[in-house]
Amino acid sequence: MAMVYGIDTGSWRVRVAAMEGSFRRFEIRDAAQVGVPHAEDGTPLMADAIGALRDQEKGWDTAEKAAAFPLDAGVVRLVRLPFVDKNAIARALPAEVEGSVPYDLEDMVLGTRLIDAKDGQSRTSVFIAPKDELRARIDALVAARSEPKLLCMDVDALASYAGRGVQVVVDVGHRRTLLALCQNGQLLGARFVSGGGADLTVAIEDALGVPFARAEEIKHGMALPLSVGEGGADEAQAEWEGEDATDAGLVPPASSIGGAPGLTAEQAALSRAVDLWCAEVRSELITLEDELKVGIDDLLVCGGGAHLEGLGGRLAARTGVPVRPVIVPGGHGIEYALAVALARVAASELKVVDLRTGDLAFHGHAETLWNLVGATVLGGTLAMVAGLTLFAVQLYDANQRLDSLDAKIVDVVTGTFPDVGADRLGEPSMALAIMQERSAETTRRVEALGATVAGVPPTLEMLKSLSEKVPSPNQARIDVRELTISEASITFRAETDSYESAAKIEESLQKDERFKSARKGDEKKVGEALTFTMTIPLGETDAAATGEEG
Predict the structure, then answer these.
(1) Torsion, Cα of 280, 286, 289, 291 (10° steps)
(2) Alpha helices of 124-181 — where are they, by DSSP H?
(3) Which helix (H) or strand (E) holds 76?
(4) Long-range contacts, stretch 137-142, CB < 8 angstroms, 24+ apart
(5) What's the CA gap between 154 and 341, in Å, rounded?
(6) φ, ψ for residue 514 (rounded to 5)?
(7) 76 burial class (0-12, 13-18, 19+ CB within 10 angstroms)?
(8) Which end of the chain is more exposed for a tag (fewer CB within 10 A), N or C?
(9) C-alpha angle 139/148/181, rounded to 5°?
(10) Which region, left, alpha or beta, applies to residue 184 given φ > 0 means left and ψ of -120 to 50 means alpha?
(11) Do 414 and 425 meet the contact criterion of CB atoms below 8 Å apart?
């Protein structure tokens, strides 16, 4: 049977989930983890940890694998656009994203997933990751003989555990906590908290003055007491929902942070550290709610740090939101949630946004076979077998690409012509015939319309002249938000960088005889941008205005 693997490369442990099967019917066979050793300077030796697990798997080298790229090295954004056409969305996304993130998109990999498109509006999840860091992660996995066929954002894979409603998957790791907000199973946005299980261990280490390893042992043997502080869970719920309390109550009263009578020093330290972690998680959850304009129904916890007894109850008390663990397929513990999700990605059970695109794309086993044949001098029989195998692999890959292209053709035709049902597009030739027929019909209509209009329509001519007279983008940025052209005047509302840029735009327009009476007004500074209105009288109105001023 074929094998696939999901690799979760954490900073504290490497976890691997294995699935076996064939023809896209895979079952989880096993999951395992191993601690990550560290060099003398503290550098984690991920390759050594993977090697310890790899050596136990005979089919590791030929199996397909999936791995995750960390959210703390990338960005997930939800982009809303006022149209639903897929081609228009694809054209608009780069500009929308570039304006909201402080990165040069040429140095980034941009992945997208359309969430929904209805009522003239669309929502798209955008995944952004630096090419250099993607390449470094791939090279590290290649060095460990574990090159992944697919590399996705960790929160993208974790979103598979969300169901109906608005749920947040909370992955409590060793040094960071991931928050993946999903609506009806679709990832809308994600954030992370720079804290996890290690911070809780350090709190015990400092309180008792013991080594980190001993503090870790003590933590795993402890249970966290439920302490909601003054006001209880109802207060936490009220603060979550109240409009005036988002900045207040993030850290519970001192009397409730590890201060209950009868607690030992390690219990008090652990309780205090957990409350501070809950406050950070709560703050990020509120930010997600505000950004995405949704209300959270449930928190689904996973990750090795979520094993601490009582953590879920404390988090529920501090946030006012129900908390429960995720259900990992195969009956495995919640610490294997990401590894199992990645194995399902490798088995094509889950659809994620692959960040291995362009020059980072996975080249597949066909390239490996070519290198093997070129490096090994064998007899004629072996060369023939290798050639036939390569041909079979390439033929399979070609058929897969053809199936994918056929599906894209159907999407394009049905998206362009909604009245054409997918059942009419069984063959690519039928799709081509429909496109040619509709194109010919459109051409006839355009020709008929052209016969009724002499020359260039005046509105289009005026719009062309106006666009030619504004300054070039390197002189002054202008984003026109509203434009009205009438017989009497041209009025538009626009956005630029500064008052100086607005003055340049006005001066540039006034250099044209038709627009010499252009006047800007209603200038307002909005953040780092400036909005203004430009009015250009035309015809007799222009002449009258000029006479009055003279």
Answers:
(1) -80
(2) 131-143, 154-158
(3) strand 75-81
(4) 137/67, 137/69, 138/356, 138/360, 140/46, 140/47, 141/7, 141/9, 141/50, 141/67
(5) 9
(6) -75, -25
(7) buried
(8) C
(9) 105
(10) left
(11) yes
Dihedral class, residue 156 (left if φ above 0, else alpha if ψ from -120 to 50, else beta): alpha
DSSP 196: -
The structure's pTM equals 0.62
DSSP at 405: H
Q: What is the pLDDT of residues 242-253, one digit of tens each?
A: 433 333 334 444
Provide the 3-class DSSP secondary structure of residue 483.
strand
Q: In the predicted model, what is the mean pLDDT of residues 38-49?
A: 84
**Strand ranges of the sheet holding 25-35, from the earlier edge strand across to the other edge:** 25-35, 13-22, 2-9, 64-69, 150-153
Range among 98-112, 332-346, 414-428 rated most confident: 332-346
The beta-strand segments (E) located in 265-423 are: 298-302, 323-325
For 523, residues 6+ apart whose C-beta sits below 8 A from its C-beta are 499, 502, 530, 531, 532
For the stretch 356-393, pLDDT in tens is 998 899 886 544 544 444 545 456 666 677 778 888 78
Would the pLDDT of 318 be above 70?
yes
Nearest to 328 by CA among 200, 179, 468, 157: 157
Helix (H) or strand (E) holding 443, with range, is helix 428-451
Least confident of 474-488, 495-509, 528-542: 528-542
pLDDT of residue 410: 74
Spatial distance between the Cα atoms of 264 and 252, rounded to a whole number of angstroms: 20
DSSP letter assigned to residue 304: G
Distance separating alpha carbons of residues 224 and 436, to the nearest angstrom: 69
φ and ψ at residue 289, rounded to 5 degrees: -60, -45
Cα distance between residue 323 and residue 310, in whole Å:
11
Of 528 and 351, more confident: 351
Residue by residue, DSSP assigns 450-481 as: HHTS-SS-HHHHHHHHHHHHSPPTTT---EEE
The pLDDT of residue 419 is above 90: no
The two structure tokens encoding residue 267: 């219990």
